[in-house]
TrEMBL record:
It comes from the Bacteria. The chain crosses the membrane at residues 136-156, 199-216, 265-284, 296-319, 339-358, 370-395, 415-435, 464-485, 527-549, 575-595. InterPro entries: AB_hydrolase_fold (IPR029058). The keyword rRNA-binding does not apply. It comes from Streptomyces nigrescens. Residues 1-29, 783-813 are annotated as: Disordered. This is Integral membrane protein.
Amino acid sequence: METAEPTPTDPLERDPSTTHAAKPVDLPTDAPQLSLELLVHGVGGTTAQDMLGDPRVQLITGDDTAACYRRTEDADAEERPGDYRGEPVREAYCWSNLTSGNGARALWLILVPFMVANLAHWMRPAAPPDHRAQRIYDLLVRMLALTLTVLLAAAACEVALDLTAWQCAGTPVCVAGKSWLGFLSPDNGGWWSAPGRRLALASVVPLLVIGFLWWLSHRTWSAYESASPPPRVPGSSRYTPDAERTALSLEGFWYGRRLVARLRAAHTTAGVLTIAAVLLAAGAKADGAGGHYSVLAVTGRVLIALVVLLAAATLVVVWRTARSEAAPDEESDRLVVRALPYAALVVLGLIAVHSAWARPGSHSYGPLPGAAAFGGIAVFQGVLVLALALTAWVLQRAARDDARTALRGMGGPAVALLACAVGGVLSGGVAQRFADWMDGGATPGQAHAPIPGPPVLLSWQASVIPALLVVCAVVAVLAAVRVLIVRRRVAEDVPGLYDPREHPDHRRTRAIAGTIARAGLTDAAPVLVAATSAVTLVLGAGAVAGAWLTDRAPGRATEGAPPVVHAAAETAESLGSWLMSAGVILLLAMGRRAYRDHSARRTIGILWDVGTFWPRAAHPFAPPCYAERAVPDLTWRMATWTERFDGRLVISGHSQGSVLAAAAVWQLDLVTRSRVALLTYGSPLERLYGRWFPAFFGPPALTGLHREMDDWRNLWRFTDPIGGPIRLTCEDGRRVDEGPLRDPLAFGRTLQNPLPAQILGHGDYQADPVFETVRAELIARLGPGLPGMPEQRPAGGHPDGRPAQGSSGRSSA
């Protein structure tokens, strides 16, 4: 019987066949120690040539998707360390291909509701990890994500089965002029003209949609998210107080393969069962009418029982699927879970045969039975959001640090509500526009229209969209007024930041003050999210109530009202219908432009890169998580380089790259982590991630990160709309933050700057002389040789237990 070998305590003594690195390189004892600066770019990406300032670069390790590059002349720097005395070897990690590509990737924006719902999972308040409400919160988000998949499948069924196969194909006036629908027309008398057979044929379309999402989820996991983390010494975080530990430091955080596979099986099953339920609803009424077709009625009930049984199994899988982050979850799913989608496909095939069975005299008229399911989905989503808000409130009361948490812990429920709203707009917009195209010049649902059109709820939802846009416009106007007020207040202080000998320039002052004021709008994002969510909840509830009270379109529901009210209702419905459709088209256009236009990529990419940073914990059809490839890449590179060459390393991250850098440092062994310094600039670590994701990037987590590192410095500017201060103080009294940096570097024209200096904002931090000074200080502080383990300190931040004091950070501007 074989016995496991004991785990070494020193990563340099581990067998290279079982660890993440080779043996250390034998260097002369008097050889100078080498330093490495690992550069990580931010949102929008850049080339290795731009990052290294040299057109000649060489790939060191990696592939076409993500790789590390050096200047050609630095490729063999480890073999001649004497050439780099006092100067680090610069190496660029380029990960932009993980989030960009050709214009076809714009279609991923259709998955925005899934991505936003996944974000809600990570926005839970920073309550203790063992709090019971944590599991309830995660379960509610997973259930809400499942309803979004059902909504998508229902929307596909609405277009293919209801509007096309049931309404238009069964109406000769609608079929006229559409040769591709002629073989389905009852006037043709063909085999496919029966309503059940038309529906069975049309069900292929939503089935292909669900199958495409399943394939895309499986393919992106293999391409982006299958990188395993390097092995670590067990208990490597034992020196971190419990209150300062974060799940980002757990070995299995960036490797949730089993969870994604289980959720993918459950959501695929739910989508297939939604199609099956629509087919059953269409045939149930005819089979039970007047006692006819008793055999079909019995088989229909059996099939309904099978659908219910599979739906219950799907709910159980979603209920029991939770993240396991302590270690990489590499176990395979049980056969029952893997067989669930195939069982649903078999049941769907039986239902398609049952639906296509001959029913003499049957015909289609009116909307497809079961259209009220849209209202049921909306109501259930509202209940889940309210339960999520209550759970978040309980967690927020138990939170460790809630001083700057966005929306007082209600960020997750607000974002979840917006995910439901976006899903409703996308599904309703597609259905409305498709119905308008199918019925020609008429208006669906109105008098003399060839088809009834989409369900009433979609029309009510269209009617409230203009009101929602008015609220958004009011918020935008208030934001503009705030910019003007802040600009006027800040303009008084701008000249005092520069050399008094420079002549005042009012236009230049207004430009700088305006940039600072606009950058401060980022801190007002919670107000916009709260206002939009509140109005969406009220208007959505009104739309559901209106659809329940009447089965007519909103415009016709006011026929007895005064002409002004009637005209206003019809205008709101028509305008809202066009706005819903325009929203879908605009979303696709913006996505396509974002992948072709670099400036648009930087603008749209801010929210996109934040959303796809997190693993798919709630929805398996969300866009892929690039960090599950980038973070292991950076962790492997830092661990192997420091172990092989016994050198000093500074990881330098800009913008989103600083988040990746911090996440990678959390994944290191404590020994390796203490040999690494972190330089961040333009960093959203505290300003965005700390406020919106407090359980993972809150002040206790950032304090614990700095405790186990050699040093950490952060550069920021008032003019930066993304980056901000970290608001931590080092244990020796020095602050982590270096700033605010002066921007622009020169106010007017001087002997050194004869032309006006550019306002840099979020970019080009390396142009500031402070950057080189801080980087040199970090490299100098990394002592030679292998540092000892840090002494265990109390959770307060000082050896004597005194708490660490935060810096003042960003001013009111």
